[in-house]
Specification:
Helix 5 crosses helix 6. The chain is 39% helix and 20% strand. The strands form two sheets. Strands 3-2-1-4-5-6 form a six-stranded mixed sheet, sandwiched between helices. A three-stranded antiparallel sheet has the order 7-8-9. The longest helix has 17 residues. The chain has 266 residues and is an alpha/beta fold. The mean pLDDT is 92.
Length: 266
């Protein structure tokens, strides 16, 4: 039996709620075999990031080569790409692959700690965005990338279109969790706009939300679903993960990656 497979290229979260730990947990829930290439190590918990060590770009390339020489990859997902050198190495490798790619432009941790160098933002648009099947920024990330204010659903739609048209991505999903009201996400796939709505869950325990959502989309793309179909599956998955998030630690607790099982278990 050959399983569907997914490769996450991202940073490590020692607290287990975000980064490659969240990615691999998510892949497992979708029965997709997960692999990982580490870009950065973080010392963090629910209260914040205490330290960061970036993996040398040469060793990131060695990890990518090791995967490519032996293991099949059905989808790629990137998270924390902290330096321009890392963006260049990862982007050059992805450019040679002809498979779906989900780019989560992780810029700031849930606790507010910057996870990307200033010059890296330009490198993302140069080396990564043009090869992405979809980019998945939240509103603050989209505002930073586009230098625009986003306060309405119409703004979100404009941002999604601009991310595709100006950066060359195949699609863009602008996540609206930072707005009041429903949790609305806007997807533009280069042809049409789709809205995905769920009731907003009011909780401080949202650590790892972006990583988990992007990984759920990636897992569904690995399973050969369309982009819109992948988002349609991933949206309720992340909503339940937030609804039943874990109230552990003294800061922002993590999402619950197996929350989607609850209805089946009751």
């Amino acid at each position: 039996m050959k399983p569907f497979t997914a490769l996450t290229i991202a940073g490590s979260d020692s607290g287990g709620g975000a980064g490659i730990q969240a990615d691999l947990k998510t892949f497992e829930e979708w029965k997709v075999y997960g692999m990982s290439v580490l870009t950065s190590l973080t010392a963090q918990n629910t209260t914040g990031v205490q330290g960061v060590h970036h993996v040398p770009a040469s060793f990131i390339e060695t990890q990518l080569t090791a995967i490519e020489e032996d293991l099949p990859v059905d989808v790629i997902k990137t998270g924390m790409i902290a330096t321009r050198e890392t963006a260049q190495v990862v982007g050059t490798w992805i450019a040679r692959q002809n498979i779906p790619y989900v780019c989560d432009p992780v810029m700031v941790s849930t606790s507010g700690h910057p996870l990307m160098e200033e010059e890296t933002r330009a490198a993302l648009s140069e080396y990564l965005f043009p090869y992405a099947t979809v980019i998945t920024p939240n509103i603050p990330e989209a505002e930073t990338l586009l230098e625009m204010e986003i306060s309405t659903e119409r703004d979100m739609e404009e941002a999604a279109r601009r991310l595709v048209e100006e950066f060359g991505a195949g699609g863009a999903l602008v996540k609206g969790g930072h707005l009041d009201g429903e949790a609305v996400d806007v997807l533009y796939d280069g042809e049409e706009v789709r809205m995905y709505r769920e009731d907003k869950v009011l909780t401080e325990n949202t650590h790892g939300t972006g990583c988990t959502y992007a990984s759920a989309i990636a897992a569904n793309l690995a399973m050969k679903r369309t982009l819109s179909g992948a988002v349609e599956q991933a949206k309720p998955f992340i909503t339940e993960a937030i609804r039943y998030s874990f109230d552990i630690g003294s800061g922002n607790g993590p999402t619950n990656h197996w929350a989607h099982r609850k209805e089946r278990e009751q």
